[in-house]
Amino acid sequence: MHYYRYSNAKVSCWYKYLLFSYNIVFWLAGVIFLGVGLWAWSEKGVLSDLTKVTRLHGIDPVVLVLMVGVVMFTLGFAGCVGALRENICLLKFFCGAIVLIFFLELAVAVLAFLFQDWVRDRFREFFESNIRSYRDDIDLQNLIDSLQKANQCCGAFGPEDWDLNVYFNCSGASYSREKCGVPFSCCVPDPAQKVVNTQCGYDVRIQLKNKWDESIFTKGCIQVLEGWLPRNIYIVAGVFIAISLLQIFGIFLARTLISDIEAVKAGHHF
Question: Keywords for this entry (predicted)?
Fold first, then answer.
């Protein structure tokens, strides 16, 4: 004889569709990131020759875009389908992944605060590696130019870091027209010029060092960023808290929906 236990437990439509709406945004954002990344790769011919990615000594910004896109697409898909189909496995995967990302972010923030010198050295190595590959990838070039223009800086610790690049190197073995120069993004902008002078950095490092600041930025980007962080600590903290609250909200919705589904299943088994 079987004994059935009936229960009034039911899955909350409110939490179900709220979690679906929460995840559809991430899923759509993931689709956009993937689309933009694949389009950028197709424009550079990477899709027809994937070895171009491995031959780049620096980092291809498109790779970061694709990685973010894959993570957002996967989590958004798992959350959407898990909520609509009331699939506990997908919901647990979504919840576990968000928890993992949350604690990774927290660990990175704490370690970066405790080991500032180590972080500074790694960032210097990263920046110098990308300076070497400045002319190898157009997206990397645009990223470095944007960073230098926005922060009015040049190189990792100064303009001399551009000796690391074969085109800007001052050694006698170089025959590049850009020898002993810097990228145009290092130049102090001239308000009178309406058209960007991409040759403004040519031969600038041949001059005496005390004259460099008349035409180019002399502060390194690492120094500028180190000064930027304390001045904007409340903005950085606010962004971190906002992201953390969104993640905690997603975890809460997923766990609540999982509990509802488990309660319904428990009320119908014998």
Answer: Cell membrane, Disulfide bond, Glycoprotein, Membrane, Transmembrane, Transmembrane helix
